[in-house]
Automatic annotation (TrEMBL):
Localization: Cytoplasm
One GO process term, biological-process aspect: phosphorelay signal transduction system
Entry protein name: Two-component system nitrogen regulation response regulator NtrX
A Pfam family assignment: Sigma54_activat
Response regulatory domain boundaries: 3-117
Lineage, broadest ranks: Bacteria, Pseudomonadati, Thermodesulfobacteriota, Desulfuromonadia, Desulfuromonadales
Residues bearing PTM 4-aspartylphosphate: D52
Listed SMART domains: AAA, REC
CDD domains recorded: AAA, REC_NtrX-like
Gene3D superfamilies with a match to the protein in the record: 1.10.8.60, 3.40.50.2300, Homeodomain-like, P-loop containing nucleotide triphosphate hydrolases
GO molecular function: ATP binding; sequence-specific DNA binding
Amino acid sequence: MRTILVVDDEASIRESLEGILQDEGYNPIFAETGEEALAMLGRELPDLVMLDIWMPGMDGLATLRRIKEIHPGLTVIMMSGHGTIETAVKATKMGAFDFIEKPLSLEKVLLSIQNGLKVVDLAEENRNLRRQLGKDYEIIGTSQPIVQLKQQIAVAAPTSGWVLITGENGTGKELVARAIHENSRRKDRPFVEVNCAAIPEELIESELFGHEKGAFTGATAARKGKFDQANGGTLFLDEIGDMSLKTQAKILRILQEHKFERVGGNRTIEVNVRVIAATNKNLEQEIAAGNFREDLYYRLNVLPFHVPPLRERLVDIPLLAEHFLRHFCSKESRKIKRLDNEALKAMMRYGWPGNVRELKNIIERLVIMVPDEIITCDHLPDVITRGRENGKTRGALSGLQLEGASFREAREEFEREYLLRKLEENDWNISRTAEAIDMERSNLHRKIKAYGIELKK
Ligand SMILES: Nc1ncnc2c1ncn2[C@@H]1O[C@H](COP(=O)(O)OP(=O)(O)OP(=O)(O)O)[C@@H](O)[C@H]1O
C-alpha cells in the first residue's frame, strides 16, 4: 500500500483527504505543520507528499525547500487556497511535482496523485535498469594489474579530472571509462560515446560540437553535438589519437574554458562535461611525429589509466572465460557449459592479439556451435590449438611452463619468454629491442641479467 503524507494545518482538509485516500486504497499519514512533517520524514519515507502552502510557522515553500534538500527524489504536490501564478511557478522551480488549488476537487487530487506515483515508479524502474546495466560493466579479473586498475578507478572516479586511458584494442578501455562514469557523481547524467576513428574528418567537428542550420550543404536544421548531449555527464572520446590537430585545438579550449561554438555559428555555448579519452596509440610517439598536441596530451593525462594486454594477465583468462560462458549460455538459454583443463591451458598459452574482445567472441561462438556441455581442445579454433600440436604457439607465450606456477612465477616466465622473443626479433641488439618494447635500456639490461638471458651473436 502506498503511503501519502498530508501536511496541512486545517483539520477539515486532513479529515476529507483521509476519507478520499483510504477509499482509494492509499495509506494516508498526517502532519499539522512543516516542522512536524520534517520530523516525520526523518523517521519514515512516504511515497508522496501533499503539502499546504499557507501554514503557521514554517510555510509550505520553506518546508518544500528542506524536503528537497534531504530527499531530492521525493514527489511533492503543493496545495493552496490563495494560489497565485507566482507561488505556483516558484514551487515548481523548487522541485514540486504539481500544484492544486483549494477548494480541492476530488478528481484533480486523485489524478495528480496517480501521475505523481507514476513518476515515482518510473524513477524506480530507471534505477533498477541502471543497476542491471551496471552489472554488465563489471570488470572481471583478479590479476595484479586489474586489481590496481579497480583501485585507481575507485579513487579517480568521484573527482572531476579528465582521464586518458591507453591500451591495445579490445583490452577493456571502454569498460574502464564506463566504470569511471558509473562511480562518479555524474552517474545519473548521460554517458556519450564518440569513436573519433569511425567518423570522417570533415564531419567530426559537427558531430562533437553540433552545427547551426545552413552551416554546410546538407545542414538543413540546427543539430546538437555530442558535447551538448553529454552536458552534466561524461563524454567518452575513443581513439583520440585519430583526431585532427584542428579538432584537438577545439577540445583543448573546452578543457580550459568549458566553452565552444557550433559549426557555422558564433553563439558561445557553455558546457560542464567530463571527458574520458582513450587510445591504442602511443601518444608520445604521435607528439614526436607532429600528429598530436603536446599541451592537450598533458592536460588529458592528469589521470592516466593503462589497461594491459590480456597476455600480461594470464590468471584472468579462466575467470573471464567462465564469466562469458555464463553470459552467453544464459543469453542463448543453454545449459551452462565449461571448458576442460586442456582447453583452458591451450587458451592460457595463446597470445590473444585481439585481447578480451577476441576471447569474448570465441566463447560466444563456442556456446552457439558446441552442443556438448564440456568444451575440449577439439572444439577450439585452430589458431589457439596450433601451438599445442607442434610445440610452439603463435602467441607471445610459446612454451611457457605454467603448471602449478604462482602468479609471480607465471609473470616471470612470461617476461623471460617475451624478452627472448623480442631480442631475437631485433637481432639481439639491446638498444633496438628497448626502443621496440618501449622500455628503458638500463631496465632491459637489468632484466636480461635477472633472467640469466644469454645474448646471442
Ligand atoms: N575485464 C573485463 N571484464 C569483463 N569484460 C571485459 C573485460 N575487458 C573487456 N571486456 C569486454 O570485452 C569487450 C571489449 O572491451 P572494450 O570495448 O572495453 O575494449 P576497448 O579497449 O575499448 O577496445 P577498442 O580499443 O577496440 O575500442 C567488451 O565487450 C567488454 O565488455
